[in-house]
Sequence to fold (825 residues):
Amino acid sequence: MVPVEYYIILSAILFTIGVLGVLVRRNALVIFMSVELMLNAANLAFVAFARAHEVAAGASLFDGQIFVFFVIAVAAAEVAVGLALIVEIFKSKHSIDVDQMSSLKG
Amino acid sequence: MHLSEPLTTGFFFLAPWVVFFPLIGLLINIILGGRLPERAIGWIASAASGASFIVSVLLAWSLAAGGGHAVSVPFAEWIHIGNLKLDWTFRVDSLSSTMMLVVSGVGTLIHIYAIGYMHEDVRFKRDPGRFRRFFVFLNLFIAAMMILVSGDSYLMLFVGWEGVGLCSFLLIGFWYEMDTLGRPSWANSNAAKKAFITNRIGDFGFLIAGFIMFWAFGTFQFDEVFEQVHAIAPGIILAITLFMLVGVTGKSAQIPLYIWLPDAMAGPTPVSALIHAATMVTAGVYLIARSAPLYSSVPEAQNIVALVGALTALFAATIALGQYDIKRVLAYSTISQLGFMVSAVGMGAYVAGMFHLVTHAFFKALLFLSAGSVILGLERGHHHAEGAHGGDHGKGRKKAGKKKVESGHEAHGYDEHGEVFDPGDMRNMGGLRKTMPITFWLYVIGALALAGIFPLAGFWSKDEILLDARLHHPTVYWLLTVAAFFTAFYMGRQIWMVFFGEPRHQAAAHAEESKPIITAPLMVLAALSVVGGALNLPFEGFHHLGHWLEHTLHEVEALPLNLQVAGISTVLAILAILLSWFIYGRNPLKANQPDPLKRTLGFLFTGMENKWYVDELYQAIVVNPFVKLSHFLAETIDEKFWHDWFHEKVIAGTYNWLSNIALDRYADQRGIDALANGLGVWTQNLSVALRKIQNGFVRSYALSVLLGVVFILGYLILK
Fold:
């Protein structure tokens, strides 16, 4: 069985890639993809820990998996709202560069 | 204390009414007088004064019935502070009741006279509205004088003392906007001010005496003060009595403060008679008689009082010789007679002084009121004369009657030559014996009483004073005897000038006798002037006034008639009258002819005519330096020093400096402003700094979130 650390390391790498993607990329779609990446890194960590916990406890426990379903559902909703916003922003600004969305700066 | 007489017997409970009847009278006239006719106003005032007289009679009767013991009637609590108790208590004893009878009795007669007199006076002076004011003042005077004589402490006496001073001021300045001839001028109000201010100097002396008295005795109450006289150092009593004498010289017109009384003749004639001859000016004599135990214990003070009185008597009599105004002669005569009274009470002859006070009230009121009648007669005559000139001689009288009514619209007092006619100037008179016979006889009675001719009232009272002086004080005796000679002379001069010879002016030729309302009170006074001497005849068993006052004054000596003194004074008086006939009666004065005495006496007469230049002297040594000092104080001290320098430079300057430099620049600008503005600036700077965080870049916000998460997680892990 693959040790749980491997999953965690993979999850951390994915999360870091997601964070860097959010921080360095300006394209809103790419940022969204990076956010998805972070969410999925978290999902990976959830199922990995859930599996390890199940094994350690010797009973079938689904708490972690159920959390992941919630996260997937919320992520889907978030993407729906976010894509709608991006479409509307693109309609007015003809661009989805997030650095140009700075009307609220102080 | 001899206040043991119970209040239940007699009419003593009525005592406060001697003050309150006149007050009620004046209130009625103030409130309702505007709607009442003249006569009603006058009679209400007279009735108020008369009621006061009736109460005085009842009080005197009760007093006599009760054996003459002094009675105190507590009336009101005034000031109670700790142990200090100052109450308004009426004191009824033989001395105060004598004064009450004189004040209200003579006062009532003068009120009645004034109804007639003021009726014509307000018509002549063209201001009928003042009729009511006059009677209100007159009643106020009676009330104040009653407070003065009925108080049982020096404090209540002082209250009345100031009250009569106020009434004197108000009534001297009654025609305040004109002079005595009715021309627009401030002469009358200046005379009123002169009287008031001169009296203020005297009152200051009285006040100081009061302060010393309270410091030494601890009380103002007469009996309590007199009980302690022997326990107090004579020096202190001497100071009290001498300061009191200053008050007396002011109120009773003695040297050196007598100067206000002649000018006080600016007031209407009833005022001159009531206030400036019969009652108010005798308050000083009453004060000394009242303070007899104080004065009797310091012979030095008595000496000074006697000398001041005697000198005043002589000095004023010499001035009276050279006056032309009928009222001014009487004014100086009053000063002179007051001098007689003051020297009498100064010598300890309190009964003689009070006796002369009473008889003088009768005959001097008579003389003043008769002089008023003469003046009215001349004013009427003046209008007749003008009327006669204006038209047909046959109709002159009728026309003149109309003229009087119309006179409200024409210039008053000027005759056809445009000269001012002075109805009080004796040089305008002459021959009034035929036109005003009643007034003439009344005047002669008053003059003979004043001159001290047997058996009129003045003879007895004056002789009593002379006799006391003869026994106690030779200097005073000779001064007074000479003064008595002058008295007879100037009264003779007046009679010859006014009533004998030929009229020296149209007005005198057309003069008309006064109405009965004016002459009736005069007849009563004349009767009193004739028989007034019976109050205290110098024979065994006839010292009525002496025995009466003995209850209050204790040390009374009843002197028998001294034929030598009486003989000398009578002979001198008759000689003086003969001399005056020789000079003024034998060859009556012609119009515009100078006084014959001027030729004989030369510069002496000029001195008398000009009142020995005392007014000018006072002007030079008191008034002018005072005015200069006032100017100096006002212009230099007040304006330049206090205002320009101290207020503007020092106070305002310091304030400006403080507020501009110290407070504004440092405390306000650098302290409070810095705090308030600094807070704002600091907030702005902070917000500028913080605003940089809000750069609008989504990714930098994301970075912040990341850093926050890292920080919190780091904290949680490494905790």
Chain A has a mean pLDDT of 89. Chain A touches chain B at residues 19, 22-24, 26, 31, 98-99, 101-106 (CB under 8 Å).
